[in-house]
Amino acid sequence: MTATSPVVLVAGGSSGIGAGVVRRLHGDGYRVLATYHRHPERAEALVQALDPDGRRLAFVPSDLADPAGPGALVDEAVERFGRLDGVVHCAATIDTTPLDELTSEAFERVLRTNVTAAFLLLRAAATRTTMSSAVVISSIAATYTGPDSAAYEASKAALSMLTRSLADHYAPRVRINAIAPGAVETERSLAAEGFPRAMLQRRIPLGRLAEPADIAATAAFLLSPDSAYLTGQAITVDGGLSLKLT
Ligand SMILES: NC(=O)c1ccc[n+]([C@@H]2O[C@H](COP(=O)([O-])OP(=O)(O)OC[C@H]3O[C@@H](n4cnc5c(N)ncnc54)[C@H](OP(=O)(O)O)[C@@H]3O)[C@@H](O)[C@H]2O)c1
Asked: How confident is the model at residue 29 (pLDDT cuts 50, 70, 90)?
C-alpha cells in the first residue's frame, strides 16, 4: 500500500487546522508531505506521534511568503514520493495592527502569504504533476468583518475567487475547492488575548466551536472521489455561525 498510496502536500501542516488535516490524511492512508514555518517542534511532534519511521509523513520548512517557495515544494513532493495527487493549502498569516497604522508592506505580506502563495502552489501542482484535487482553506472572514483584519479578510475573499478561476481553468483534469471555517479551536485562537470562546459557543447553532478534525473531514471529502462532481466551490464549515451574523 505504501508505495502506491496517493500523495498529498499540506502547506502549513504544523499547527491548528493544518495539523488536523495531516492527522486525518495520514490516518486515511495517504503519503503526506507537509510544511512548517516557525514551529519545527510541532512538526517533529506530529511525525513522532503518527509515523516515527517517516515512511508516509515528512515535514519540510517553507516560507510561503517567498515566491520561490511554492514551486520548490511541489518539486520536493514529487522527488520524495514520486508523484503528487492532492494539495491542501492551510498556511495563512494575519496582521491585526490597528488599521490606521497598517503599512503597505504589512498589508502586502498578508496577501503574499495567503493568496499569491496559493496561486503559485496550485498552478505549479496543476501544471507539473498529475494532481487531481486541491483544497484551499479560506474563512468566513471572506464575507464577514472583524476588527483590524482588513488585509486578512481581503486575502480570504481573494482566495474564493482564485478558487473559482483556477477551478475553471484546470477543469476537468483538476478539481479545486475551498473550505470556509468559522471559529476553530486551535493553539493560535485559544492563545489570542480576549478570544471570545464562551460568546461564540453560545452563538453557534451546533453549540460548540469547530475542532481541526471537523475541517479536516471536509478536506478529506474534497480530495476523495466522493466529491467528483464538485469544483470551484467554497464550503462553509461553521456549525451554523454565519446564519447568525446577518
Ligand atoms: N483558527 C480559526 O478559527 C480559523 C477560522 C477560519 C479560517 N482559518 C484558516 O485556517 C487556516 C489554518 O489556520 P489555523 O488557525 O490552524 O492557523 P495556525 O495554527 O496559525 O497555523 C497556520 C499554519 O501556517 C503556517 N504558516 C504561517 N505563516 C507561514 C508562512 N509565511 N509560510 C509558510 N507557512 C506559514 C504555520 O506554520 P508554523 O506554525 O510552523 O509557523 C502553520 O502551519 C488558515 O488559512 C486560516 O486563515 C482558521
From this structure: very high
